[in-house]
Specification:
Length: 677
């Protein structure tokens, strides 16, 4: 069964007219769409379009029920509805007498009744127009539209009534629906978009999520049987609540003049569009708002950061938060090396490691007031730098502490200022070493009263060493060269000498033959004795043939005896220098033409070979021997025999000839040329 329309009748007064009783006459009763509702709602558009309920009454002593419908649009027919139900009593249309008055546009149905169906006066009775076909039209099925917060989940339901058979339910739109027998929201698994069936008294549940933006709409259109209804969910425009900028920022702390600052919020606010801004002063910006929260912030400056839900509209932004971004400090974890320097060093170099590439370092005194060296670490492939201190060095035997300062350039986020790293190093100067290495002043041999010089180099000291001399017969000079200084440089006043300098000594030999004159030279506590040894008196030492021996001077030349006018000698070049003196100068007797000479270390014939040539080393000739080449030969152990090429018979007696070799004015060296002993 299907109810086409329902009306509510408030029963009117009974009165007598021509002996008949009437009840519910429209002029005396009330018609409404709800019980106790507004009167005068007599439209019957759901039964006949444009029609009105004109009369529903009983009369003739409750033997007649009359229904009048005003047909303003000429749509009323004796059809469409099959029955009316008045106060619970059913009256079939086909049981009534139907008449139509075209003049008054009133259609009338009259039933013969046996009792009055109306209730007592003033009560509300229900009148329904129904069909006898299956009713697939739910009555009053609808879903109230809502306006809600963004992204919120919404649920709604309605009960299906006035159907007498199961009907199909379908949907279209944005959400999902479920059909269940309870008003309690079912589990999510029951919701989907699939078609379903429903019976009378069951519920249709709808579910949808509101859109994210103000004004967004989400709709679900439900068709249940012959009824279609739409539910709309609209996203509200929320009230704008200003966000709050947090004092905690995200800082990239990049090694550069600028950093990237991320603005964080302690409260996000709501409504509008969240945007951020940066200013150089504490004034709300009229422009420059952005949805991204990252900003470039120059180092060494203060910036103000803002957040808003509607840019600079009053009340939609929070108070600004000031942020000062400083500079990156240089790396202070450097490692300088301690340095030990010699006593006489004029500078010291420390090696600094654990550096940061691109930074510059200074070495200063421990108070940081004096800078000694500035070095940048800018060479790739190295792990350290050298810094040199050339002033304020410690004295001997002490140490001075120095400190390293570091600078980070602005290109790396620094402020170009030097920071105290706290890393120190010590420069230690060794105590003065005035004790030289052992030294030797070579002794010298010469004739009596000859002036002898010698020298030695002083090494192994780091400071000037004192010179002490044991006698007053010697003089000395200090020089940077091994060459003998000028005579004017010698004296007794030089009392100190430095490392690698030369000590030159000069001493006059004794006036006596075969006499040693010694002087002790002490330098920084280390001593050596310099001796001058005079030659033996001529003729005082004799060998085979009665000839004597005498050494040469320090230059390898014959020491001339001022009392002799003629001297003959031979020289052994490997260190043995002997001088041969023919005795009895002026004697006219015949002299032997051989002379035996003692040579140390000559142990066998193998150490010497015959026919070794004896010549003058200065390229001259033996005038006294007539330009003749002479020889010498191995004689015995330690002995060489010198043989003249001719004889000296009469030669030495020739005073004129002998005097031709003036050894007082010329010194001649004779060397043995041949095998080295």
């Amino acid at each position: 069964m299907a109810i086409l329309q329902t009306k509510y009748i408030q029963v009117g007064s009974y009165y007598n007219s021509r002996g008949y009783y009437y009840s519910g006459y429209i002029n005396y009763g009330t018609v409404s769409n709800s019980s106790g509702g507004t009167s005068g709602q007599w439209e019957l558009g759901s039964v006949y379009s444009g029609s009105k309920l004109y009369t529903i009454s009983t009369g003739y002593n409750a033997t007649r029920l009359q229904l009048d419908i005003h047909d303003g649009s000429s749509n009323v027919t004796n059809g469409v509805w099959d029955k009316i139900v008045l106060a619970g009593t059913t009256f079939n249309r086909t049981d009534a007498t139907y008449t139509q008055n075209y003049g008054t546009n009133v259609d009338r149905w009259v039933w013969t009744i046996s009792s009055d169906p109306f209730s007592s006066n003033g009560t509300w009775d229900t009148l329904t127009f129904e069909t006898t076909a299956s009713d697939t039209t739910p009555e009053n099925l609808s879903f109230a539209n809502v306006t809600v917060a963004a992204n919120s989940e919404q649920n709604i339901l309605d009960i299906v009534t006035t159907i007498d058979t199961s009907i199909n339910v379908t949907m279209s739109g944005d959400g999902t629906f479920a059909c269940v027998g309870t008003s309690t929201t079912p589990s999510s698994s029951n919701f989907n978009t699939n078609a379903k069936t429903i019976t009378n008294g069951q519920y249709i549940h709808l579910k949808v999520t509101a859109g994210p933006n103000a004004g967004d709409t989400r709709t679900i259109t439900i068709t249940a049987g012959t009824v279609t209804t739409t539910w709309t969910v609209t996203t509200e425009t929320p009230a704008i609540v200003a966000p709050t900028v947090s004092s905690s920022f995200t800082n990239s702390n990049a090694s550069s003049p600028n950093v990237i600052i991320g603005v964080n919020l302690s409260a996000n606010g709501s409504g509008g569009t969240l945007k951020y801004a940066q200013t150089t002063s504490n004034s709300v910006p009229a422009s420059g708002w952005q949805t991204a929260n990252g900003f470039t912030h120059p180092r060494g400056t203060t910036r103000y950061y803002w957040a808003s839900r509607d840019e600079d509209t009053s009340g939609t932004y929070g108070s600004s938060v000031a942020l000062a971004v400083g500079y990156r400090a240089p790396d202070t974890s450097v490692t300088p090396s301690d340095v030990t320097i010699p006593f006489n060093a004029t500078s010291a170099t420390t090696v600094i490691s654990n550096l940061t590439f691109g930074e510059t370092y200074q070495v200063r005194n421990n108070a940081g007031t004096t800078t000694y060296d500035t070095v940048a670490y800018t060479t790739s492939g190295t792990s350290s730098i050298n810094a040199t201190v050339s002033s304020d060095l410690p004295s001997g035997g002490s140490a001075t502490v120095f400190k390293v300062y570091a600078q980070r350039p602005t290109s790396m986020g620094g402020d170009n200022l030097y920071d105290d790293t706290g890393d120190t190093f010590a420069i230690t100067r060794l105590a003065a070493d005035t004790t030289p290495n052992a030294f030797t002043i070579p002794d010298k041999t010469g004739d009596p009263n000859s002036v002898q010089t010698s020298f030695t180099q002083i090494t192994g000291i780091t400071a000037a060493a004192t010179i002490a001399v044991s006698s007053t017969t010697a003089t000395w000079a200090v020089s940077s060269s091994a060459s003998v200084p000028a005579s004017s440089a010698f004296g007794t006043s030089a009392n100190s000498i430095t490392n690698d300098q030369y000590l030159h000594v000069k001493q006059t030999a004794s006036s006596s033959y075969s006499t040693t004159l010694s002087t002790v030279f002490t330098v920084g506590g280390v001593a050596d004795t310099f001796s001058t040894i005079t030659n033996a008196q001529p003729g005082s030492e004799t060998g085979t043939g009665g000839y004597g021996f005498q050494q040469l001077d320090s230059n390898g030349h014959l020491i001339v005896d001022s009392t002799s006018s003629v001297k003959t000698f031979i020289t052994y070049t490997q260190g043995l220098v002997v001088t041969l003196y023919p005795p009895n100068l002026g004697n006219t007797s015949t002299y032997p033409n051989t002379q035996d000479v003692t040579v140390p270390d000559l142990t066998s014939q193998q150490d010497f070979e015959d026919n070794y040539v004896v010549t003058r080393t200065d390229g001259g000739v033996f005038n006294i021997f007539g330009n003749t080449t002479h020889t010498m030969a191995y004689q015995a152990t330690n002995t060489i025999r010198f043989t003249w090429a001719g004889t000296c018979t009469g030669l030495f007696g020739n005073v004129r000839t002998c005097a031709a070799l003036d050894l007082h004015a010329n010194t001649f060296d004779i060397s043995i040329i041949g095998k080295t002993l």
